[in-house]
Design a protein that fits this description.
The relative contact order of chain A is 0.33. By secondary structure, chain A is mostly beta strands. Chain B has no helices and eleven strands. Classes of the chains: A mainly beta (about 110), B mainly beta (about 120). At the A-B interface, strand 4, strand 5, strand 9 and strand 10 of A face strand 4, strand 5 and strand 10 of B.
Amino acid sequence: TQLLEQSPQFLSIQEGENLTVYCNSSSVFSSLQWYRQEPGEGPVLLVTVVTGGEVKKLKRLTFQFGDARKDSSLHITAAQPGDTGLYLCAGYSGAGSYQLTFGKGTKLSVIP
Amino acid sequence: GAGVSQSPRYKVAKRGQDVALRCDPISGHVSLFWYQQALGQGPEFLTYFQNEAQLDKSGLPSDRFFAERPEGSVSTLKIQRTQQEDSAVYLCASSKVEDRVEGYTFGSGTRLTVV
């Protein structure tokens, strides 16, 4: 079983601060996805990264895929209360794999 | 429909009772997945359908769990003789075949509580 370790598990910050959350594995993933999940809802896809070293930006969110395709990070600039939620990384293990493996998530609280 | 619809949203079952959870995927989505999410954890894979064919059921935790998708659209996850450890949110997701860039679209889940 390929595991994705996310850190930190919990993060509470003030509005306007910057933060980075991490997703690490000892295994190589063909692609990694980041989802955000709000209480009582299903996860919603934010981004997919496919190429080692790839950086993608989505407004104030910056996603990076490690060169070896074993890790990824999510950086949020000037966090807003609307960013509050559970951030999950998930990966497909192989080129033909259809099964997403999820990390346990980082629970982010942004305090106004 | 516009999104993945799951029902019921909440289910309380007495230990030993059978339950059935329903998932209506996005129209035209060939792939359908069931995941189980325990409190404070990420979703864990249960089973995968491509149209009506169940291609992978390796994540089903016991033979009390059974899933079907007889006509390749609506799917039902059935849990027989529920146990307390079955308490979790059950998420259904659908996707286009091989569309791993767009990822899955998840429903809001069914929260099952076994008492």
